[in-house]
Amino acid sequence: MGFARACSVALVGVEGVVVEVQADLEPGVAAFTLVGLPDKSLVESRDRVRAAVVNSGAEWPQKKLTVGLSPASVPKGGSGFDLAVAVAVLGAAERIDPRQIADLVLIGELGLDGRVRPVRGVLPAVLAAAEAGYEQVVVPEETAGEASLVPGISVLGVRSLRQLIAVLADEPVPDEEPVEEGRPDPMLAGLMVPGAGIGTGLAADPAGGPDLADVAGQHTARTGLEVAAAGGHHLLLSGPPGAGKTMLAERLPGVLPPLTRRESLEVTAVHSVAGLLPPGQPLVRTPPYCAPHHSATMQSLVGGGNGLPKPGAVSLAHRGLLFLDEAPEFSGKALDALRQPLESGHVVVARSGGVVRLPARFLMMLAANPCPCGRHTLHGAGCDCPASAIRRYQARLSGPLLDRVDLRIEVEPVSRSDLLDQGRRGDSTAVVADRVREARARAAARLDGTPWSVNSEVPGHELRTRWTVSPGALAAAERDVDRGLLTARGLDRVLRVAWTIADLAGRDRPEAPDVALALELRTGIARGVPAGAVAGIGGRP
């Protein structure tokens, strides 16, 4: 009787659970039994592993073989267990020393010829192995860079099972023929899955992306864009078609600061699981940009799918921008499903296959027309929409959802003078991005030692008691609360925006002009902000 064990990792959402792969050989009729709650793709590994072992020059044991995956209560799926199953079987057959593989974590799919193919989710799998105390992992060569992002882990990248057997048996390692230059590499086919993302992409470098200076006029909208980027505040742009709402949204990712190391690992893990990580780019350093179509379902936004839920648009936009163009055209259920992640920064999805907690701390930007035809706010444009149709259209964005949006800005059509006067271009993306980074640095210094990193995350109680504004600065906001124009949550959000404006202006704490501008950006009502009080923000003179 032979027995050996190795380890692999089962992914539940973007979190991993270390799984012990046990192989047991007993005398009897040759058979291969796989137990431990495997799904269909994992059950099929029996044929892949057998063919890979034989084609790698090793002998397949002609005995009763049982492979168990523990803990048995954890659902396991995918082809990433192939390598661990093959090594455990070879250890039980004493082709390799079972003691060498007992604490070895192996992740990878096997081709019938013995080549090791890359799989999705290597980074979160290796992170789970490191947190569990394991120090050595074996992954496909194509994903070795992704696995090496985890500190304190020894990573071995292999191209074939033959190479791994030679390494574990202390034999000369055979060379595998590299892919000829100019020919496609079929081994990369499993990394990026077409259709896995929902209008998502990784923002390009700001130097090569669209420039904010291309936007003509729209000084108030540019101010809102800068404040949103500096403090992580959600933003609604409402205005007629052609005013530049989508144009502004496409330039917002270039204004956001680069991701920190921790944020980069979080974003990379989500994109790796979703099959959206570009080959050769193991670490995502720029904020992601996700713009789903308005026909997107609730499951595609918050996560779902058969069995265990997969990341949705809110998770693919984690630490980046979620842009909902034509927001009133989305279904009401889909929009209202965003309330919980907007508050908590994560989404908990319960399905028959299990409950998954997915990260979802994103900056949301909504764009909406004022009516179905879009011409309601234009003078003399001939809007034929009945008043009831306009009310129904605007009511598609529910009050509870809008209450979570810090900035609500009416975008006016661009005037002819702004459009044709090329000498009055606004600040470029690089200039605005520098101001945003400086404002975030001030906020980070103030919030050092707390669980929060940007102003939009700070609870209202802390803003009212721990970090207070200048005396009398809240007088206008208090009057709006008394009139019913602001809810308690709305007042907290005005305070957060005021702190962001103060950070952009270089002040130690918000003053009356900062609160007045925050109220103006939230309510759309002009507050008579004195000229020069917030100079520089959004390109203001």
3D structure, described in words:
Belongs to the Mg-chelatase subunits D/I family. ComM subfamily. Residues 231-415 form the AAA+ ATPase domain. One of its GO terms (molecular function) is ATP binding. This is Magnesium chelatase. The structure is a single chain. With 541 residues, the protein is α/β, with parallel strands linked by helices. Among the domains are: 3-191, Ribosomal Protein S5, domain 2 (2-Layer Sandwich), CATH 3.30.230; 193-218 and 233-255 and 288-425, P-loop containing nucleotide triphosphate hydrolases (Rossmann fold, 3-Layer(aba) Sandwich). The protein is 35% helix and 16% strand. The chain is built from 22 helices and 17 strands. It has helices at 40-43, 45-55, 82-92, 98-101, 122-131, 144-147, 161-168, 219-231, 245-255, 261-274, 298-302, 313-316, 332-336, 339-344, 387-394, 399-402, 416-420, 429-446, 460-465, 475-483, 488-505, 512-523, and strands spanning 2-12, 15-26, 31-35, 64-70, 105-106, 109-110, 116-117, 136-140, 154-158, 200-202, 235-238, 288-290, 321-324, 346-351, 354-359, 363-368, 407-410. It has a 6-stranded mixed sheet. Strands 1-2-4-3 form a 4-stranded mixed sheet. The protein has a 3-stranded parallel sheet with strand order 5-8-9, sandwiched between helices. A hairpin with a 2-residue loop joins strand 14 and strand 15. It is elongated, with a radius of gyration of 28 Å. The termini are far apart. The model has no long low-confidence stretch (mean pLDDT 87).
